[in-house]
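Weekly sync notes, structure subgroup
Attendees: PM, AL, DS (notes)

Item 1: joint prediction request from the bench team. They want all two components modeled as one assembly rather than separately. Inputs as received:
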Amino acid sequence: MIDLFIWEWEWQLPLFATLVTVEVGYIALWARSTRRLRNTVQSAAALALFTSGLVVVALAVMSPIGANDERLLSMHMVEHDLIMWFAAPLLVLGGIPLLADERWLPAPLRRWFVFLTRPAVAWTVSTSLLWLWHAPPAYGLALSNVAVHGVEHACYLVGYSIYWWPLIAAPSTLGGLNSSVSRVGYILAGATQSGLLAALLAFAGSVWYPHYSLVPGATVSTALADQRIAGALMLYPGAILFVVAAALTIREPVVESITSAG
Amino acid sequence: MTAAERPVSTAVLAPNRANGAALRASMAYMVAGLGTVLLMGLLGLLMRLDQAGMLVISPAWFYRVMTLHGSGMIAAVLLAALGGIAAGVSATTPLSARALWIALVVYMIGNGFVIFATLVGGFGGGWTVLYPLPEHGIVWSLQAALAMYAGYFFVALGLLIFCVHILIAMKRARGSLAKALAWRFLFSLGRDKRDALPRPVELIAVVIAIDGIAAAAAGLIYLVPLFAQASGVVTSVDALFAKNFVLLFGHTMANLSIYITAGLVYAALPAYTGRAWPTSWPVAAAWNLIIPLMLLNYSHHLYADFAQPVGLQLLGEIGSYAVALPSFIVTIIGALALIYRSGIRWTVAPILFALGLWGWVFGGLGALLDATIPVNQVMHNTLWVPAHFHTYFVLGALAFALAYLSSILDALSETSERRGTRAAAWLYGIGGAGFILMFFVSGANSVPRRFAVHLPEWQVYARIAVPFVLLLALSLAWLSWDLATRFGSAWRATRRAVAEP
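Output from the run, pasted for the record:
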């Protein structure tokens, strides 16, 4: 029987400081751009969404979910789900009003930003990061080293912030996908790659990460069962999330007026 | 009756700019559906090669491939059909492109689950997922069965979104569903013409939307207790209940494909014959009758289940016979009458429409025989059953869907079809007919279906079938290439104004 620390919070000062710094930086930028936005409701919503994203990161990593991520793979998967599928889109929703107008960005940064928000690049980056970090050697390294573990989570957050950007950004803004067919293709491409990884994990006949069978109280059998739950936790909520993403991001095209051909 | 009173099908083939967004979504359905058909067809070729003894597939993999091929084909042909009917309806009824795209995402996520469950999870319980087999698989885990169920859940949900949207759109356009079903006209025996009549394709869209909602609901009802059992909420599920509901879901979905694509014949054939196909009283009566009849005929798959009440067995037999009559009398004879002496130019679309009519006739006859209880008890577990549904899928529904996509491209693309492509359409018919004939011959000789290992004396039929399957594959590749080269121009044209004839 594995001992879980249901009420344990794992306060990570460096992470906490980073989140506070990011929030303060965001507020400074937000205050500067609020005048430009000229829409108080939109502006307040952006601040709330961005702050919520940071809170979700804090909850994922420092709450009992994160505190148990080295004991149960399924807990670790919930942590990842929260970071990739909740925190990242919330941060993007809060960040877009500030960053979509890229004119104020320094030129080199702008070039990178334009490059990274290209849909093919965004999908490739997020997919590569997700799959690379789930490779057993990388995953094992993250479990054995706190700093590497932090880098892993940062990669998911950044990778999936980049992934969600083209979907959430309006077609006219930086990186926004400009047609329904491209949005549908992008959503399905994202759902397919993460679904495939989840299916491989859920249906695997052996334990991918031996660490979890070495936890006190665990056996190979319990680790395999835990791994299947972890795969399911990625597979099913992931599918629902992509359906929700489709419902929220596919827009009704503007009805074009009938004009004569010539 | 003037054209104003009865909308004429010939006037609506060419899409206009106002429906461009919905039309693009519809075309995406057709491309996704037909693309999946090609992939699933390759799996079918693998199975036939295995049955011919020309390729060795392990039984575990054979059943995985068989499950994916069966479920994938039904979903793919239905998707192409849904796209076609949406394109046909959108010519005169505003549809929400957003709703169509969302339904497509949900549907494709379901397909993804089925692929994962079979190819990654090893599920091989057949597309019918007959309870309790999926939950007691020896070579696959419960997780794989649940992933399969999840796939069906999302497919059912996607279908539900699509059908509900069609009903809402038609109700808005016509004022009420009764008007969309031409009931005043129908129940006055054609005398009361106060309501503007829906075009046949609109009427058919409403009919299939109603049955589609019933099928999706049956699928969801089937899945709830199975998920409840998997999670430990209930200890067991009644197997007969499960079989009735899964076949009401799956069989109706398969039926929907053929009936929807028949609706495409109404939408496009008049443009090639130069004759109108209005909503006459027989058309309205036939398609309204199909609403209940399509939901009854599934139970001819339960004749071997002694626990099934006799009344339901008889209802299944009567329903199976009855559903054929409106289709044969109204659609097939109507289409042949439309073609007869019309001076039709036999381009790819009309060739495929004509092939589809014959495929529907012969597939339907095979189905009628299988629906006859004494015949069913001898033939149902032989290759006779795949024979009949391959006939109306390959030569019926798929031919209709390809024909309709071709007709859309005829109307929109700047690139004309290549002259040689007509040969591909004929080869499609020859390949398909030979392939299917060997299924019928195998069934008549009691070769069992769903057997991974074929005895040497059974292999001869599959060996004769293989060249025809290859011909079918070649002709499909040829047709697909021609459609693909014309598709881009048609897609762009949906953004431009198109003068209506």
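Discussion: Chain A has ten helices and no strands.
Action: AL to compare against the crosslinking data before next sync.
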